[in-house]
Amino acid sequence: MGVKQYKPTSAGRxxxxxxxxxxxxxxxxxxxxxxxxxxxxxxxxxxxxGIVTSRFRGGGHKQRYRVIDFKRKRDDVAATVISVEYDPxxxxxxxxxxxxxxEKHDFSRAYILAPNGLKAGDKVISGEGDAVEPKPGxxxxxxxxxxxMTVHNVELVPGKGGQICRSAGxxxxxxxxxxxxxxxxxxxxxxxxxxxxxxxxIGVVSNAxxxxxxxxxxxxxxxxxxxxxxxxxxxxxxxxxxxxGEGRTAGGRNPCSKTGVPAKxxxxxxxxxxxxxxxxxxxxxxxxQNTA
Length: 292
Hints:
This protein is mainly beta.
């Protein structure tokens, strides 16, 4: 697992970096499990009414979605890791695991998020039994996880499946437990309270070097489906609150989005959002603190 930089044969190659895919089992072969693939339709940032809700989206390479098992509900059955693969839909690697065949399940393979250090041939298991040990790749409820361990793919609602700490290099530290609640320190520095019945996977998400990759040229962002970003100060007053004016201007007001939402310093989270009660301490303002 690392970053590769080519010789500067062109302007785009000079600053561009790519992953060396050393953590993948077969780096040069991209052959995902066909039964775990779904078509991924492009929306161009538009909703069901055709209105653009996410600006500067469109184009990009054709992709197929890999169905990931975020719930890990097949308990007390050890699965073997077949391979660690690249997934174009996320920054982390995914692992193809295979369960022993039985009468209840016709298909015995599944994709999971690959933690750091997981490789082909390893065994992973989920559940609450004594056979489930706190080692990378195993999934268990938070009341069973030892204090001080780093977990990922954490549920917010028991049985709903992992929702937080799923991107490359992320991991939350289980710092305390009190009655029916567990206290997690998030990668941003935020301290959050989660039910002890929620499940989490042991370890840190793989491909932590993803943050060090330099795109190198604008064309690579177009491959990813990202179109050029147009600043609000370059627009007309009818198109953006910060538009208009003679010559280059600072916008004439505090930075904001096209709909007037503050972009720097203003709070955008809903005051009465249900999940806000679970936050014990907010993340430090103005900086990103990675504790993974």
